[in-house]
Write a structure and sequence with these properties.
Number of domains: 2
Helix content: over 70%
CATH superfamily of the largest domain: Tetracycline Repressor, domain 2
Order of helices and strands: HHHHHHHHHHH
Radius of gyration: 22 Å
Number of helices: 11
CATH topology of the largest domain: Tetracycline Repressor, domain 2
CATH class of the largest domain: Mainly Alpha
Number of strands: 0
């Protein structure tokens, strides 16, 4: 074990990019994520990451100047591309994507990890940028594409507020997971999708649905 660690530290018997180097790199990223789940961002320590990954601190500091940079890359490493979603209907597309999100929230490790990320985002613009554009952005972009296809097919209002719909779809699950603590299951997921789609479906006459705010505005005119 000592020889293996020394080789990782000095680069002996290997060149950059060799399997051992890549394996150590991946182990460090996994350790950073696992420990963030367990202890949170504030308590995350490079010493602990090194011990969990089976490397020395010098290996970590050679690639990352601090834990902020390490966790930012670790966030990118766990971004999984959203599953292909083109079922032919906007409801079908959204259910494919939302089921993937549902399974993520059903993992007991997810709430501690997300709460750690949210705390880290408040302190680190770098981590906030990586999470918004990576972990969150990939899923949000896939749902945006599904909604835009629904608009093109006439299933949704042509001038619907797509960003609001995305907030409703994603925010409901985040709230339930981190704040209310209630379960997220198939029934809940389907109801969220159906209620959001109902709010933005085209009117029968083809004219734009009048919002409550617009009605009040005319009444007060």
């Amino acid at each position: 074990m000592r020889r293996k660690r020394i080789e990782m530290e000095t680069g002996a018997e290997r060149g950059p990019g060799r399997p051992r180097d890549r394996a150590a790199h991946a182990a460090i990223l996994r350790a950073a994520i696992d420990l963030t789940r367990e202890v949170g961002y504030d308590a995350l320590a490079i010493d602990a990451v090194a011990a969990r990954a089976g490397v020395g601190k010098a290996t970590i500091y050679r690639h990352w100047p601090n834990k902020e940079a390490l966790l930012a890359e670790a966030v990118e490493a766990i971004v999984r591309s959203a599953p292909p979603a083109d079922a032919g209907t906007v409801e079908g597309d959204l259910m494919i994507l939302m089921r993937s999100t549902m399974r993520m929230y059903q993992d007991p490790a997810t709430p501690p990890l997300l709460s750690g990320f949210i705390a880290a985002m408040a302190r680190s613009p770098l981590i906030a940028e990586r999470i918004r554009n990576g972990f969150v952005g990939v899923r949000r972009a896939a749902m945006r594409e599904a909604l835009e296809r629904g608009i093109q097919r006439g299933e949704l209002e042509a001038d619907m507020n797509v960003e609001l719909a995305l907030d409703l779809l994603s925010g409901s699950m985040l709230w339930r997971s981190l704040m209310s603590g209630e379960s997220i299951n198939e029934g809940y997921t389907r109801e969220v999708v159906q209620r959001v789609l109902r709010a933005f479906e085209p009117s029968v006459s083809g004219t734009r649905r009048t919002s409550g705010r617009s009605k009040r505005g005319r009444a007060n005119a």
